[in-house]
Specification:
Elements lengths: L1 H23 L4 H9 L1 H17 L6 H32 L15 H26 L5 H20 L1 H4 L1
Length: 165
């Protein structure tokens, strides 16, 4: 499973760079849009492969939980990463006369913490589905990653918004 997660991450960046390259270097707006919109399909593929592996009788391992964690955070923080890459690519490859650059949201640390809470909630939901598929007896690593997701949200809340005060 770990190999699928790594391959998914690499594929995400390949599709992202292909999308912005198609948009700004080749001026293929439709192809670019299709590529950029398809990036969440990579997350669906990773989750699907994880659930298939668990359904076939595999005991959960470290990578099954990591897949859920990766997807939960990718769903929430991925669009902003795409927007930042798009903006950077636009700044570098757009005609200087075209002033309008893609918007990237400005967030406070509280805003990022709320996004972390959302990502942790999605992660925990994905892990709960995995536990239901694998059964409680074979779910040690899924429960472990549930604790990691909760701890991540708590730590982010302490380090982020409280640090700003």
């Amino acid at each position: 499973m770990l190999l699928f997660i790594i391959a998914g991450e690499v594929l995400f960046w390949i599709v992202l760079l292909a999308g912005v390259s198609a948009r700004y270097l080749m001026h293929w707006r439709t192809v670019s849009t299709v590529l950029l919109v398809s990036t969440p399909l990579i997350d669906i593929l990773i989750v699907g492969l994880t659930y298939i592996d668990l359904h076939r009788g595999s005991s959960s391992d470290f990578s099954h939980g990591m897949a859920a964690f990766y997807v939960g955070f990718s769903v929430v923080f991925g669009p902003e990463a795409i927007a930042r890459v798009d903006r950077r690519f636009a700044r570098r490859h757009k005609d200087p006369n075209e002033v309008e650059l893609p918007a990237v949201p400005t967030r406070t640390s509280l805003g990022y913490w709320l996004r972390c809470l959302t990502a942790s909630t999605i992660t925990i939901a994905l892990l709960a589905i995995g536990i239901a598929i694998a059964g409680l007896a074979d779910s040690f690593w899924l429960i472990y990653w549930t604790i990691v997701a909760v701890f991540t949200a708590l730590a982010w809340g302490l380090i982020g918004p409280l640090r700003d005060r």
